[in-house]
Each structure stands twice: as structure tokens, then as C-alpha cells.
Amino acid sequence: MIWDWIAYLVAVLGTGISTYYDLKTTYIPDEITHSMIAIGAVLLFLRFDLVHALLYLGMGALVFIIGFAIYSFGQLGGGDVKLYTGLALLIPTFSPILRFEGLVIPPYPPIVSIFFSSALLGMFFISIQYLVKVVRDRDRIPEFKWKIMVALFMALVVLITAGFFFNVERGLSAILIPIAIGIMIYPFKDDILALYVVEEKEVSKLTEDDIIAIDKLPEDIKKKLGLGLRRTYLDMELKGIIERARKHKIRKVPVYEHLPTFGIYIFLGLIITILVGDLLFFLFSVF
Questions:
Q1: Cα–Cα distance between 193 and 178 in angstroms, integer?
Q2: How many domains are there within the chain?
Q3: 148 assigned to some structural domain
Q4: Which of 50, 115, 136, 278 is 20 to 30 A removed from 61 (C-alpha atoms)?
Q5: Residue 232 near residue 256, CB atoms below 8 Å
Q6: What own/partner pairs with CB < 8 Å and gap ≥ 24 does 22-26 have?
Q7: For residue 234, what are the domain limits?
Q8: pLDDT in tens, 50-102
Q9: Structure pTM?
């Protein structure tokens, strides 16, 4: 149906442009994601009956709510949340372009597959980037030899598990291998944050996109600023934080300033889902 192809086109173009801006500026413009959300909502009522359109609209709202909660704890960017929401509205049902024999369509919506694929790819490639950095800067990392041995041991445990499951289910093995790479950065977590991610920033210059490193702040400072478990705050909330910082003469706070961009992995997850449906079901079906 023509509306389905229009929805696919908007999803691919919108995510592709978002990825370009994310890679270039580490920021996804609201104009793109808001347009995707608006077009996706309108297309729902052109593609489906009223009941299903409202159901899929509610699903998009749920994606935004869950995404916003994840964003509040600093695990996902605000632009990424809006991008996932737009994709949930644009692609509410599975209709893979490539249909392999025995391919199974999962019972959950495509946005789950897009999120899973993007998270798996992101974990794999981002972990490799950080592993290259820690090996390069090993002289700056305390107890590097011990940590790399722990990292290799943890990866080996996962790979042995993958080898066992390879004889039972190859698809599961394909998932466990990227996980083995991803788990290797765990012993270096604090070093990675200190060397490559966390940076001091003036409280007066904080924005909604900033992720405050709550775990790096002393309890008394958190109390004075009125910070809780959340790591991101809306502009209206930041005004209060800035006022309290002035009152207590707190100039700077640590923020996660140099986090890797994630838009490219959302784009790849989208392409995989459009082509073959759910990645996990595809691996199980083909392998």
C-alpha cells in the first residue's frame, strides 16, 4: 500500500538525516523528530481503521513514556527518545521486505526489534572503540594488567557459553558474541568515565541535553542542589538548580560530556528491521 511505503520512506530519511546531525554535532534537531512523530501519527489514521490507529498511537505514547524514563536516568539521549517514538508510529507492524523461508514474525511491535538491534550494535561497536582507547592509554590506567585479565576472563566465560549454545542454537551464539565484547569494558568502567567521558561544566550553562554525573558528586553537594537519582533535568527544573547553585556558591558539576553518538545504531537497527523483521527471530530462523 502506498501509505506504507511513504511511512518507510519518512522513517529511513528522517533517521538518516538525524544520524547525520548526530554524528556531526552530537545533537538531533527537534524539527526532524517532531516531524516524524507528526507524520507518523497522521499516517496511522490513513493506513488503519480507527481502533488500530488509536492502539498504535497509544503504543507510540508508551514508547515515549518509557524512553523519557530511561532518558531521565541518563541512559538515552532526548533526541534518541523522540526518534524511537517517531519510528514506533511510522512502523507499527512488521512487513519485512526480504522474506526468508521459515521466517517467524514476533508477537511484539517492530520498535522492540529496532531498539534491540540498535542496542546490540551500539554495545558491540562502542565497546570496541573504548577497548582500543584503554589499550592505547594503558599507562594511564591503574592496574591495567589485572583489569585486562578480568576482562578477558569475563569474555571467555561468555564465549564458552556461546560455544555450548552453538551446538543447540546458532542464532543465540550470534547474539552472545557481541555481548562478550561488550562485557569486556566493565572492569574499565571508571577509567573510561574519568579519561574520556566526564567533564566539569558550569552549572549556569547546563541544558536539558546534559547528563549530570550524580555518582561523582558528594552527598552534601547533591543535597544543596536538590538532586535525586535522576541525571537529566528539563529547562524549568534547571532554573531551580542554577538558583540553588548560586546560593551555595557551587560553580561546576561533573557531566557526561563526551558520550558516543547513538543515532547511527538506531539507523542500522531500522534498516535491519525493515529488511528482515526482528533480528533475533531472523537469526533463529536462518541459522
A1: 21
A2: 2
A3: no
A4: 278
A5: no
A6: 22/79, 22/261, 22/262, 22/263, 22/264, 23/261, 23/263, 23/264, 26/259, 26/261
A7: 198-256
A8: 999 999 999 999 999 999 999 988 888 889 999 999 999 999 999 888 877 76
A9: 0.91
